[in-house]
Amino acid sequence: MGGGQRIVFIYGSLDMGGVETYILRLSNWLVSRGIAVTLLLVKPGKLDSLLLPAVVRVYGVTDNAVFLKKKGIPAEAEDALRSATILFALDPFSSFRTTALLSRSNPLARVAHGVFHPRIYFLHDPRPTGSDRLMKKLLQDVLEPSNLLFMNEACRASHGREFGLDFSNASVFPLPIAGVREVPCGARGRRIVSVGRLTSFKTYNLYMLDVVRELLDRGFHDVRWDVYGDGPMRPEMLKRVDELSLTGHVFMHGEIAYQQFSDAVCGAEVFVGMGTALIEAAAHGVVCVPAIDSANAKSYGYFHDLDGYSVGEHASAAPSIPVTELIVDIFNLDDWAYQALVAEEVARARQFDIETIGGRFLETTSRTQSVESHRRLPPSMRWRYATIVLMGTMAGFFSKAVAKGLRIVLPTSMWIRLREMNRRRHAVKNRSELSA
After folding, report:
1. Which H/E stretch holds residue 86?
2. What is the DSSP code string of 301-322?
3. Exposed, middle or buried by CB within 10 Å (0-12, 13-18, 19+), for 206?
4. How far from 167 is each of 119, 158, 176, 300, 341, CA to CA, in Å?
């Protein structure tokens, strides 16, 4: 199957998240079929140890190396770009680096840019940062629709509406899972589980506390919600646990390793969440209630009710089914009806199996533009992005210096600007986890 293909993925680092596990699964699947894979990464990540030995990793392919340093990226990265047959960038920042590196790449290589969140190119609207505005220009003025791989139809539609662009020529390539569990491990017992980052667009992290309170008030006294993940919403969630008297019913376990996912979801009766975690929970035989991106406590039904490859995005109509009622209906099912519902969830998850989806990767990328046909970054955009990279580097340097007790004298306006840049720099690091 290899046929001389050499695929280069460009990304930040393989920490926990939907895109990261996507890279892990697809890379391992490709090399197991004789296809050469190289990952050009900013730094090592938590999932690196799960990559097969044949997957080549090159670190140090940073924005600084690409846009600021004369020495530039590592020699191994240069070699990979020159011999690549497919270049695949997996988020907007990686797309910026990839587009800047086209002149060093095999001119016949195909280029693909992944879009794996329904708002990834307009995440901070209505208050976009300088880098946000550049990302929009990148999508509008540089990237061709035929080079884009959207994770599902809803993601493609949301970007089309936002930018007024026709993305009908863009491909859909969903987030794959490793496969379904042979013996489902979901169980009755009124245990609800969620796995994912505790971040603001995952509004279920807050409304599920009210759902648990309502379930208790309706007589489900043995209900419990196990939350696996960490993030900026944790303090607010803990406060709400106390306010709603949910101690003993809500358990916040913190972040878990990828290998511990099965341990977390097995034995659950219901999973509430989105992204790859939703698919994987269904693949384990747990009935899943999709949490809709940035929505209130309503959904479209269960996982198998979603259209296309949706994993928690908004459809054309607003979600209308209360999450509480979906969970109550599950709790009230007899065992036969529950197992029938589990079977529907597992069948839906099977559509995301890497064995089903992986084979489409080469076919999908073969329709993208080549390096020689791909638009280049205009000098003005390259200069503006390099300036943002420099400011971000300075913000990080000054923050570390102050943390070590060093006294640095700068104008107040510059301190304010640097503090904001540093805050945004850390917020941006979380983008890679948005599909988790």
Report:
1. strand 86-89
2. SSGGGS-TT-SS---SSPP-EE
3. middle
4. 15, 10, 22, 25, 35
Residue 14 confidence (pLDDT): 94
Residue 156 near residue 308, CB atoms below 8 Å = no
Q: How far is CA 268 from CA 92, 178, 219, 263, 264, in A?
A: 36, 20, 19, 10, 8
3-state secondary structure at position 381: helix
For residue 239, give every residue at least 6 positions away whose Cβ sits within 8 Å of its Cβ, in sequence order, or none. Answer: none
Quote the pLDDT of residue 285: 96
66 and 72 Cβ atoms separated by less than 8 Å: yes
Task: Say how many CA atoms lie within 13 Å of 420 toward its Cβ.
Answer: 12
The angle formed by the CA atoms of residues 44, 51 and 356, to the nearest 5 degrees, is: 130
Neighbours of 369 (CB within 10 A): 15
Cα gap 286→265, rounded to integer Å: 8
Residue type, 294: S
Q: Which residues pair with 201 in a beta bridge?
A: none
How far, in Å, are 62, 377, 378 from residue 101 at the CA level?
Answer: 12, 10, 13
Tell me, what's the pLDDT at 431? 44
Task: Confirm if 229 and 198 have CB atoms less than 8 A apart.
Answer: yes
Strands (DSSP E) contained in 236-290 are 250-254, 270-273, 287-290
Q: What is the chain's length?
A: 436
Return the pLDDT at 430: 47
Which helix (H) or strand (E) segment holds residue 111: the answer is: strand 110-115
Predicted pLDDT of residue 183: 87
Kindly list the averaged pLDDT for each block of 10 residues, start to end, along the chain of length 436. 84 89 94 96 94 97 87 92 96 94 95 90 71 87 93 91 90 89 91 92 92 97 96 94 96 92 96 93 96 87 91 82 97 97 96 89 89 92 85 65 56 57 51 42
User: Residue 177: which region, alpha, beta or left (left: phi > 0; alpha: psi -120 to 50)?
Assistant: beta
- Would you state the structure tokens that stand for residue 226, as one six-digit string? 């196990």
**Closest by Cα among 207, 222, 224, 202 to 275:** 202
Q: Are 90 and 7 in contact (CB under 8 A)?
A: no
